[in-house]
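Deviations from the work plan: none for this task. Representative record:
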Amino acid sequence: MPELRKDPVIGRWVIIATERAKRPDEFKHDKIVPKGGFCPFCSGNEDKTPPEVLAYRTPESHANGKGWRVRVVPNKFPALMIEGGLNREGDGVYDKMNGVGAHEVIVETPDHSKSLCDLTAKEVEEVLWAFRDRILDLRKDTRFKYILLFKNHGAAAGASLEHTHSQLIALPVVPRTVHSEMYGAREYYNFKERCVFCDVVRQELEAGKRLILENADFAVISPYAPRFPFETWILPKVHDAHFEDCKTNEYANLAAALRTTLRRLNIALNNPPYNFILHTLPLTEKSSPYYHWHIEIMPILTRVAGFEWGSGFYINPTPPEDAAEFLRGLASED
Amino acid sequence: MPELRKDPVIGRWVIIATERAKRPDEFKHDKIVPKGGFCPFCSGNEDKTPPEVLAYRTPESHANGKGWRVRVVPNKFPALMIEGGLNREGDGVYDKMNGVGAHEVIVETPDHSKSLCDLTAKEVEEVLWAFRDRILDLRKDTRFKYILLFKNHGAAAGASLEHTHSQLIALPVVPRTVHSEMYGAREYYNFKERCVFCDVVRQELEAGKRLILENADFAVISPYAPRFPFETWILPKVHDAHFEDCKTNEYANLAAALRTTLRRLNIALNNPPYNFILHTLPLTEKSSPYYHWHIEIMPILTRVAGFEWGSGFYINPTPPEDAAEFLRGLASED
């Protein structure tokens, strides 16, 4: 069973993945993802993954066979285990608990040759529906406090398989990054009685200089204080705390915004590695006037080094106004 | 002038380095550090850096000439500028100020072929004295609230020049990572009336299973909840909040502990890229019963990806007890 351990000072949780402990010599060479080798996410290899927990398929197809468009399976090497209780306990000055949680992979298409941005808007929308359906299912399990949905694209962004996929990890605690974001948003709300994200959307739509694109439901912006060059956020225009509570018709517009954004980043930065992360309210909160779900996309172009680790500051060589102007200029390519 | 911008939600500061703004195509290829090419940090090339702010030299040598053992120079491409006032101002919902600060490079040896761990204990001690002397000098400037001292070793850890060096950045605000650490330590102190770091040192010395080495003044441990495989911390055994207030005789023991630790990591992980960061109390605080300075060394063996970015959680495949056992086992090589 993996162990969740808490740093006694900074409160940071760490998953000690005891099941797959690594000896020093196992780090000596970067693992290489075989190009064109065997791929467990390709159509026809469904038996090489754990049984699917969700798939959108043609009516005549069967579970764990061909004929799917989006398929969700448990991670074969999960960071957390679905079985068991938390068993929180102390160890002198320290705290730990069992590494209980869910770790799933959302395979976004059966086609190995495509990236998420190569899919049609309709196909991207189905990926978003899969995110939603999995959250709705997992939130029934009261052990889980937060579901983190993210994508690692490219080896430099942490992807270990080439076939395009996203991941979700259901956690038994609300992570600190989410806590900090909620805390900041709550402080602002307490002072202003307005949602800070709503204020950001309003200001960015009005100013326009950091706006990349918008549609009826979403604004895509270069944030004012981006950690990374070409960091890009997608925010709903109307206040909503939980991604999974979006109105049904909003997913099509979100898919369009996400797809166009990824396509433009792809052109601007020549298929960059990137991470995207869904920021949404914890499962433990019913709704919130101060929190506003959104997606943060971070192209990985620079390295995080000692300064960033030590300070939580970032040095960004590209002003967001320049990035937004460049990405706006690619509108004709959509 | 670089701009310091604050994220309005999470309170994270970002340095927008407007002077060296990058266009999208400048990220397309990883910069390669030329091996054996021209090096501005080598003895004889002193005129290729900004004039030195400190050097330990032979009595007959001259400033900005040969004959130094450790040399500190302003960064030629500083993230922050030393001149000017902060000029804090708002921009709608956002906050910014001028990127005022100091950014210096500590060249640890004139010998290009050596790493920090190849130096003698006496030479490492001089590097630590240089850290101290620069902090004592810069803290006279009341614009600065914190001095972050760190080292990036190897390209994967963010080093852009091969010649071994550390860096310091003097900041006009206390960084959030430092705030979080102080906050956690203060909470613990308020509850227990003991320093959490003192408790950690006591428990680790007693238990021994995460202890790597110790000498009269320092304990070197694998922390209980390490973010990264083989993450290693060096803590003073006796409570002290500021690195620069160490007793004179302690620097020799710190140099010995740091050098031995780096040498063992070097053997265990085959010259890994690493960052180390000095954690010390802000300049604005006189002393503290709850904060305890220390050094955190992080070998860069795994990648930070979407999960870590989104949660602040880390997945570590090497239990610290295994790492400590392995590093203890290298004692005969010292």
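Helices of chain B lie at 121-138, 176-192, 196-207, 250-269, 306-311, 320-328.
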